[in-house]
Design a protein that fits this description.
This protein has eight helices and six strands. By secondary structure, the chain is α/β, with parallel strands linked by helices. The chain folds into two domains: 3-14 and 80-195, HAD superfamily/HAD-like (Rossmann fold), CATH 3.40.50; 16-77, no CATH class. The mean pLDDT is 91.
Length: 196
């Protein structure tokens, strides 16, 4: 019997930050004071440090970020982290692959369709609609059972579950991923070495 392996999507399997910064660079390149956004420097959900012109020129910057997350442009440019797809194919032999992802109404269906197209090996998709769009809706869901494994980039989500093994995917430092004293992985090759 295979073990259930729960995997976060954004900023764990795929580099959503890179797509957000790409969209910002397209939209704001002609604005005074523009500096190209570098996804490697992104550190908070509102992208204030790398996409500051959104916060200067828009009445509701968080809504702009939510709109980016729900846009076709994001899903058309979304990239896997290095080695993620290859490792996921290998993990499929040993685990039930379950994506557990927070979403909000504008991006939920697009995200599910993208997963269906690019990750046919996934057994199940759990999409938690978070109306606030704050990026950590899973923190209130304790359904991930004892005996399962959970990998997520947000400690708040990991803390809330009963999963027997929990790994923080920490590709880079952010404002929200410091409150974790459990195991940390920073690449899909690391995940492969631990789980296979």
């Amino acid at each position: 019997m295979k073990t259930d392996l729960y995997l976060d999507f954004d900023s764990t399997m795929v580099n959503s930050d890179k797509s957000i910064c790409r969209i910002y660079n397209e939209d704001y390149k002609d604005y005074e004071g523009f500096v190209e956004a570098d996804w490697r420097k992104h550190s908070n959900w509102s992208y204030k440090n790398v996409c500051p012109l959104i916060h200067v020129h828009e009445d509701n910057p968080v809504q702009v970020i939510q709109d980016y997350y729900g846009s076709e442009r994001l899903f058309n440019t979304l990239e896997f982290y290095d080695d993620a797809l290859d490792v996921l194919k290998k993990l499929k032999e040993k685990y039930n692959l379950i994506i557990c992802t927070s979403a909000f109404p504008k991006n939920a269906s697009k995200k599910v369709l993208w997963i269906e197209e690019h990750l046919p090996m996934v057994d199940e998709i759990i999409t938690l609609i978070n109306m606030s769009g704050n990026g950590y809706g899973k923190s209130r869901v304790t359904m991930i059972e004892d005996g399962a494994i959970f990998i997520d980039d947000h400690p708040k989500n990991l803390h809330s579950t009963k999963a027997s093994k929990k790994y923080l995917f920490k590709f880079k430092e952010t404002d929200y991923n410091g409150n974790w004293d459990g195991p940390v992985v920073s690449s899909w090759k690391e995940i492969e070495s631990i789980l296979l």
